[in-house]
């Protein structure tokens, strides 16, 4: 075991005949004979690390700087992490915006480098204001943390609000630069950080939102996600070993047969599996979305014991950091490196960076059952702890206001244990509710009027990115439009099961339209009169769970004003919906 290893208590292992159904495999179909190494076919010069450590920061070597993209040039001009580690944010926050705008260096500070601190300047739609993205491993937060975030956005009036993201995370809006040092201090006081949550960093570690309370969970993912976050950020002090990646990088730990964690769209996914009586994880690598390409994660043909979750994460990140290309930003995600080197070639580079250069081949004993009907966590459900339940609340397109957050914190304290869980579907779970308090909770006005545990079926799976209201990259408005169109569609059809509909304002697909039953990606198009208008490309057929599959384009450039009848037709033709006028005619 390496110095980076951490000892975990393994979950109770199933008996040899407990799981006879087929499982989601993170292992290749045949692993008895390892494939021949492709590493020998790779030019030795290609395996030279492209970065080196200088004065505590990792920088791109001079010989590899030709043809690099603009973001790499910004990093070379000034190390972004100095804004945090060397307190550069204190000085920057005191400079008036009009002075900042005069110099390219300081302008790049607020538009690019502050993303290393989780701050995103909304130059296009909220000039001078920032979105702040937090780190919330496994989506677990406390009432105290929620109240603090509410106090931050409340001071910004109508400019302030918060969103639950598709990575179990909070984003708060309306922040102004002079307030940032105070906010960062306040975050630290309640055990939160926004560090390393944007640009070329590791994003929020995702886990099972029901971790520790689910009667049917495979393993509690919270310790692993917490450990990953602590390692990646050096306990919120800044880990410069992993702040100069070629591009962003996503990680998740799977703890449930439901695959709430969406492993197929992560750069590294830990899939629970046993080997020779030991508990650990098979590894999937390379899943990602981008405007030019979307790819599902593939098996690395590797298994690690539970205590080596951190060493293998470190090794994968170092291989990507050292060898990933830094030219065209559309071709710098980790899967492009895997494509170039081959899976076995990439695996060999990970192995080189493992403690004692050991990395076991994948296990055939996957613990995730493939024939598993994905459960609904919205509503009231019993926990594994006797006498306790959790309640899943639907947060329409993930948007909350300061008063909402204060109310959620109050309910968590009054009825639960002061804890809230965020989900990748932009919803919130209140755990640890004594069954004797359920009726009173369900009668609270917030649940009756705003965040229903039992929303309409078409609203249940509705997800939307930030959209043009705040995001400068969005082509169309998403959140309000998603709600409006869904409400209109509901009036025209009835469905017997939830249909997951995702909206994203641009091809960056933060709304993850490719995993939706029906996805809507923003674009500009023309209406029947040839007039330019907001539209969408419609995707169909995305699946999540053990038979995950990315959806395909169904119809391109549909004006948003024409969407309702199209969605009605799709629901009737592909999802068994019934037109409401037909129902009335038969009565």
From TrEMBL:
Domain Nitrite/Sulfite reductase ferredoxin-like: 123-190, 381-444
Xref: SUPFAM superfamilies: Nitrite and sulphite reductase 4Fe-4S domain-like, Nitrite/Sulfite reductase N-terminal domain-like
EC number, UniProt record: 1.7.7.1
Pfam families: NIR_SIR, NIR_SIR_ferr
Keyword list, A-Z: 4Fe-4S, Heme, Iron, Iron-sulfur, Metal-binding, Nitrate assimilation, Oxidoreductase
An example molecular function term from Gene Ontology annotations: ferredoxin-nitrite reductase activity
Pathway noted in the entry: Nitrogen metabolism; nitrate reduction (assimilation)
Gene3D superfamilies given in the database record: 3.90.480.20, Sulfite Reductase Hemoprotein, domain 1
InterPro entries, sorted: NIR_SIR_4Fe-4S (IPR051329), NiRdtase/SiRdtase_haem-b_fer (IPR005117), Nit/Sulf_reduc_fer-like_dom_sf (IPR036136), NO2/SO3_Rdtase_4Fe4S_dom (IPR006067), NO2/SO3_Rdtase_4Fe4S_sf (IPR045854), NO2/SO3_Rdtase_FeS/sirohaem_BS (IPR006066)
Catalytic reaction list: 6 oxidized [2Fe-2S]-[ferredoxin] + NH4(+) + 2 H2O = nitrite + 6 reduced [2Fe-2S]-[ferredoxin] + 8 H(+)
GO biological process, one term: nitrate assimilation
Needed co-factor(s): siroheme; [4Fe-4S] cluster
Domain Nitrite/sulphite reductase 4Fe-4S intervals: 199-356, 462-576
Family from the record: Belongs to the nitrite and sulfite reductase 4Fe-4S domain family.
Name assigned to this protein: Ferredoxin--nitrite reductase, chloroplastic
Organism of derivation: Escallonia rubra
